[in-house]
Amino acid sequence: MEKISRRNALGKMSGASASLLLSVNGTRAFTLADEQSATSQVPTMRAFRGQHQPKPLPFDPAKLKGISEKLIKSHWENNYSGAVKALNTVEQRLSAMLADKDLPAYIYGDLKREQLVRTGSVVLHENYFANLGGDGKPSGKIVELMKEWFGSYEQWEMDFKRTANALGGGSGWTILAYNVHLEEFHNYWAWDHMHNAAMGYPLLVLDMYEHAYHMDYGAAAARYVDAFMQNVNWDEVNRRTEELKIRK
Ligand SMILES: [Fe+2]
Fold this sequence. Notes:
Largest sheet: 3 strands, antiparallel
Strand order of the largest sheet: 4-3-5
Radius of gyration: 24 Å
Bound molecules: fe (ii) ion
Number of helices: 9
Distance between the termini: 70 Å
Structural class: mainly alpha
Shape: globular
C-alpha cells in the first residue's frame, strides 16, 4: 500500500472533513488537532521576530548638494523601507516554515537566500543614509588611515570612485571597510546586497543601484558619485572607525 504522509493526507481533505479521524496503513491515526500541535512545537524565536523598524533619515533631505529631496525620499520609502518590511516577512515566514517538519530543505533554502538579500539591503542602506548629510570635507582619524593604507586621501578617493564607477549602469555597492579578519582597510566592490567582502566592517557606504541616482542623473553615474562625495558625513565615518578599536 502506498505510504501517505500526514501532510499529503491532510492536503487531500476538505475543510469540512479535516477534523475526521484518519487511518493510514491501518495503524496510524491522527486528527487536524495533531497537525496543529505539531506545527506549534517550535516557539517563536528572537531571531525570527520580524519586528524591524525603518530608521528615519538622519538629515534634512532637502539640503543635500546635488541629490534631490524627491530622490532621497523615494529611495528611503520604497527601496529601504521596502527591504525592512520584506525582512520582517521573511523572518516570520521562516519561523512558520521551521515548524513544518515535512517541508523540503530546498524550499527552506529559498527563504534563507531572501533573508540574506533583505538583511544586506537593510544594513547597507542604513549605513548609506547615515553617512550622508555632511559637508564632504574629510577630516579626523580616517584621513590618517587613508594616508597609511593608500598613500594619500586623493589616492584613496581615486580607488573609491573608480570602484563605484565600475558599477555604473548596473547595481551594487562600494564600501570602504576595515576587514576585521585581515586587519586591513580596503574599498570593496559589492555586486549586490549579498556579495560583499567577508568580515568587512563598513566605514563608508555608497549605493550604486540605479534607484540611487537615475531620477537625478539618468545614466550619468559618475556625476552621482561626485555628488555623493560632496555630502559625505565624515564625522559618522570617524565614529565608526573609533568603534572598531583597531589594534596597531
Ligand atoms: Fe538603495
